[in-house]
Design goal:
The chain is of the alpha/beta class and 244 residues long. The chain has helices at residues 11-14, 21-34, 51-56, 69-78, 113-126, 205-214, and strands at residues 41-45, 61-66, 83-86, 98-103, 127-135, 147-151, 159-167, 175-185, 191-201, 218-224, 234-240. It has 6 helices and 11 strands. The strands form 2 sheets. The protein has a 7-stranded mixed sheet with strand order 3-2-1-4-5-11-10, sandwiched between helices. Strands 6-7-8-9 form a 4-stranded antiparallel sheet, with no helix packed on it. Helix 3 links the parallel strand 1 and strand 2. The structure holds S-adenosylmethionine. The site of S-adenosylmethionine (SAM) has 21 residues, from helix 3.
Length: 244
């Protein structure tokens, strides 16, 4: 996907790090509340530009895995002390255990049950006994609604605006589509236009709970709200790894 490769340098204008403070605090509290202490190390799978990690690293030693070297490079700029590893969340094996594993919206790129199970397996393999998985998909089958969003900010020289349109052409399968349109403005005032389709996974709460249980975690679902989405409830899934 160009968004995470050729366009990665634009990520801070597409998704500014300060926008993640509130939700990262919720994820950090959730990890602390549900993990048998001490809680020091967190592995993030699909860490992207490192925006959640920027806030989570105030409390945990973060190890960050992403498929895209370009996105890892963006993350290194704001999280220079974190360990960054290029890898696929379905297959990466670091050979070490963490107190918690966190997967934010990158889980959306798991579009089949098989891929989702592989990513959850990776989480299980890297989570120590008594540790926790926190995973936060953007969409759930039951609550899915076609929606449009827009955003982007001005930088000191370059600026970006985008339109995001999510729809589900086939409600019978495990995917939905997000269409992106980007306007990229350069310092000389010229504007480039670019669009891209992303296929995202769309699973029911039941499927999530079953898969989290199948890989060995004790599953739980937690609802939460965010101040910039009044009236909207989000869901995150927890997996607690049984203590031995
Ligand atoms: C929306 S971005 C994540 C942004 C992140 N939440 C943050 O805090 O900056 C999605 C990321 O998922 C990554 N990704 C997609 N498929 C992946 C996979 N199979 N394994 C690891 N990372 C993946 C992409 O490279 C991209 O960087």
């Amino acid at each position: 996907m160009k968004m995470y490769r050729e366009l990665a340098a634009w990520w801070p204008l597409l998704s500014p790090v300060e926008n993640y403070a509130e939700e990262a605090a919720i994820y950090a509290e959730t990890i602390l509340q549900h993990t048998r202490p001490p809680v020091a190390s967190v592995l993030e799978l699909g860490s992207g530009g490192g925006n959640n990690a920027f806030h989570l690293k105030q409390r945990f030693a973060m190890t960050l895995v992403d498929l895209s070297e370009d996105m890892l490079e963006i993350s290194r700029r704001i999280n220079p002390a974190c360990r960054h590893v290029k890898g696929d969340m379905r297959t990466v094996r670091l050979g070490s255990l963490f107190d918690a594993v966190f997967i934010h919206d990158a889980i959306d790129y798991m579009t089949t049950r098989d891929d989702l199970q592989k990513a959850l397996d990776t989480a299980f393999v890297h989570c120590r006994a008594g540790g926790t998985l926190v995973v936060v998909p953007d969409h759930l089958k039951e609550s899915f609604q076609e929606e449009t969003d827009h955003g982007g900010v001005n930088g000191s020289d370059y600026s970006l605006r985008y339109l995001e349109w999510t729809w589900d052409p086939n409600p019978k399968d495990t995917t939905c589509l997000t269409e992106y349109a980007f306007l990229l403005r350069s310092p000389d005032g010229s504007v480039d236009c670019f669009s891209e389709r992303h296929e995202h996974g769309l699973f029911s709460k039941h499927e999530w709970i079953d898969l989290i249980e199948d890989v060995g975690f004790i599953p739980q679902i937690i609802s939460f709200g965010l101040s910039d989405h009044p009236g909207h409830t989000f869901e995150m899934f927890l997996g607690k790894k049984p203590s031995v």
